[in-house]
């Protein structure tokens, strides 16, 4: 079976120009060329007046690394809505136009911005229901819409594209469902889909249930590529990061009060978050099983990560010995338990709903290769991620302040530490069911160090003005 060809002139430069304008393209700071544009399928279920919705995979090659390096080539998904005439309402999502010998003039727009195009997508998911859980809607295009049983979609729901800071693109369908379209795609299973499928089947209370996903058999790699995921829309949920910032702002508004006296005290939520993570890890253990890993190997990996990070963030060098000493204590633990974990947990990946805390986005750290993100790891990696987030929240509020009253700033620094320590203590006690054992503390300290090092690289590359937050944390590690 061959992929359907869109004839005409799909100029790579059209896609290069568009990628450079998007939030989600991760190669904006690098010298890149679009080296291939593949058409992998057309979303079916059109009705009168709907556009053709054609899914393209755009291959991007980078000139700043040697050919063959892991990050020398990336693949991005760009679904386009094809119209015969210009659609002025979609000017902001215009990608390009060309003359197609078969279909005449094509005016192409990013399909995620277009309600007509998204309606085709939703209908395709809806039509996949009732076929056990797996139904090839259009064998010609090799696109497969999968559905899990248990939820009837609202077929008429209108789409709204999320506008937040995201590495992928999310579209809400009314109040019913949320579709995440993966932008940077990799042949093979996407961990977000895989983990959500298992946790949904296990009935976990701490995730948004998976309703379905879309994949395609890519003729070039001869592998399945997962393109999108449809899940429960937690429409009334509040982002954990926003909640934490709100709590800190309330504390800072009246710095005479201690964190435990503040009206916005976060301790109760931190406790509930700790309980939620404990239950989530239990379900992950039961569903995926556990293994043991050699602690010395872990120390080696952390050391390699630190060495690589120092080339990006030279300011880490002066902290190397203290960080390495914190890592080294893990070696004495022999074998440690590992299993499937979240892998990149922070407050921005948690949502507070009326039914408790939910965790989203199981893709792992975006910078890691897919194969590495699928490996089992210690649950203390997730715990450490949350502790780092508790440190970030007050410092993020502090850095936004314009008030230069020094006495006040010193007081706020005390309150910032108080807030972070209080949240961490409540979270840890709830997670561990009491005090940590020596072994748990050693693992936690090492993962906190490892995460802070990762963050210095992440911030240097993505938000250089934030890098002081993890650098200050690194300076404290092993020094107390
Ligand atoms: N099921 C959901 N219901 C409501 N909001 C969600 C849901 N899943 C994610 N979100 C919101 O969308 C944002 C982006 O989701 P995320 O999965 O982290 O995307 P990305 O992979 O692009 O970072 C999250 O920060 C969260 O606020
Ligand atoms: O959400 P992503 O999977 O894209 O995670 C990446 O971006 C996060 C920032 O959006 C980054 O998190 C860091 O900043 C957070 C505050 O914005 C803070 O709460 C986290 O503790 C801190 O690590 C994350 O590391 C990165 O992988």
From TrEMBL:
Keywords: ATP-binding, Carbohydrate metabolism, Glycogen biosynthesis, Glycogen metabolism, Kinase, Nucleotide-binding, Transferase
GO molecular function terms attached to this record: ATP binding; kinase activity
SUPFAM superfamilies (alphabetical): Protein kinase-like (PK-like) (SSF56112)
Presence of the UniProt keyword Translocase in the record: no
Enzymatic reactions: D-maltose + ATP = alpha-maltose 1-phosphate + ADP + H(+)
Domain Maltokinase N-terminal cap: 18-114
Pfam families: Mak_N_cap
Pathway(s) this gene product operates in, as recorded in its UniProt entry: Glycan biosynthesis; glycogen biosynthesis
Gene3D superfamilies, A to Z: 3.90.1200.10
GO biological process terms held by the UniProt record: glycogen biosynthetic process
InterPro entries xref list: Kinase-like_dom_sf, Mak_N_cap
Protein EC: 2.7.1.175
Subunit structure: Monomer.
Family label: Belongs to the aminoglycoside phosphotransferase family.
Name of the featured protein: Maltokinase
Annotated organism of origin: Nocardioides szechwanensis
